[in-house]
Specification:
The complex is a heterodimer of chains A (about 110) and B (about 150). With about 110 residues, chain A is α+β, with helices and mostly antiparallel strands. Chain A is about 65% helix and about 15% strand. Chain A is built from five helices and three strands, in the order H-H-E-H-H-E-E-H. Chain A has helices at about 10-15, 15-25, 30-35, 40-55, 75-105; strands spanning about 30, 60-65, 65-70. In chain A, strand 2 (about 60-65) and strand 3 (about 65-70) form a beta hairpin. Chain B is globular, with a radius of gyration of 23 Å. Chain B has a single domain (about 5-140), classed as 2-Layer Sandwich (Alpha-D-Glucose-1,6-Bisphosphate, Chain A, domain 4), CATH 3.30.530.20. In chain B, helix 1 packs across helix 2. By secondary structure, chain B is an alpha+beta fold. The relative contact order of chain B is 0.18. Chain B has three helices and seven strands; from the N terminus they run βααββββββα. Classes of the chains: A alpha+beta (about 110), B alpha+beta (about 150). The interface of A and B includes residues 18, 21, 25, 28 and 97 of A.
Chain lengths: ~110, ~150
């Protein structure tokens, strides 16, 4: 059973997948070429690749007989959204603190 | 991409007042979240808010006071996750107070949010570069529209 969509953070939680993204950030690689960097079974590599794809981190292009993995922006955008969520969170809270302090009766 | 979120705020109040709002549970609750904070190093506490399923957050922040220097510095861990004890956010919040002429400067640092930030810096250029590469691959004669 495959999970249809994967959370971006689950995707990057795995060291092998982070390494794959790192490799792909330097160059587009076929699944075969990618597999050569890992001491794990070919099915395990394929599984990681599928997870990266469903998380929006890569897309797979069939060119000739080869399957090429290419980085994709969507997954990374999710991570950035999450960081900006915290940024907004603290801005809001600190402004509330400011209002509280201003209105406090002494 | 930020590894640490930083906010610097000036409050026209003495450090004692600002400190109270950072360390008294009933005052913290008024601006931050419901909590069972105690100003004691090693004290474990939680913040409670509404869940954010999109961010795999169940609404509880698990914290521990890591360092506390009255009127100057307060550090606590800030952990959260989707529930059932699973933690996927393991970060640290540091408050630093500094008395200035007519008030207090408050510095907030929330660190550890982007543990894997290094690779994301590479990504921004990486994925663009690769889109170019794939374009070139697609345009080479080998992969053109050869109708056999």
């Amino acid at each position: 059973m495959e999970t249809p969509t994967v959370d971006a953070f689950q995707v990057i939680a795995d060291p092998s997948r982070r390494r794959m993204l790192d490799l792909l950030s330097h160059d587009t690689l076929t699944i075969n070429a990618l597999a050569q960097h890992f001491n794990i079974s070919r099915p395990a590599v394929s599984k990681h690749v599928r997870i990266l794809e469903s998380g929006g981190f890569i897309s797979i292009h069939d060119i000739g007989r080869e399957r090429h993995c290419v980085l994709k922006k969507d997954g990374f955008d999710q991570i950035r959204d999450w960081a900006s969520h915290f940024d907004r969170f603290w801005s809001t809270k600190l402004r509330r603190l400011e209002n509280l302090l201003r209105n406090q009766t002494r | 991409m930020h590894r640490t979120i930083t906010h610097r705020y000036f409050y026209p109040h003495p450090a004692e007042t600002v400190w109270e709002y950072l360390t008294r549970p009933e005052l913290i609750a008024q601006w931050l979240m419901e909590n069972d904070f105690q100003p004691v190093a090693g004290h474990e506490f939680t913040f409670r808010t509404r869940p954010l399923p999109n961010f795999e957050f169940d609404g509880t922040v698990y914290c521990k006071v890591l360092d506390i220097v009255p009127l100057q510095r307060l550090v606590y861990s800030w952990k959260g996750g989707p529930g059932k004890g699973k933690i996927n956010l393991d970060s640290v919040v540091t408050w630093t107070l500094r008395s200035v002429d007519n008030g207090t400067e408050l510095l907030l640092e929330h660190s550890g949010l982007m543990e894997n930030a290094d690779i994301f810096a590479a990504m921004n250029t990486g994925w663009l570069k690769n889109i170019t590469t794939i374009d070139q691959l697609l345009q080479t004669p080998d992969h053109g529209n050869t109708n056999r």
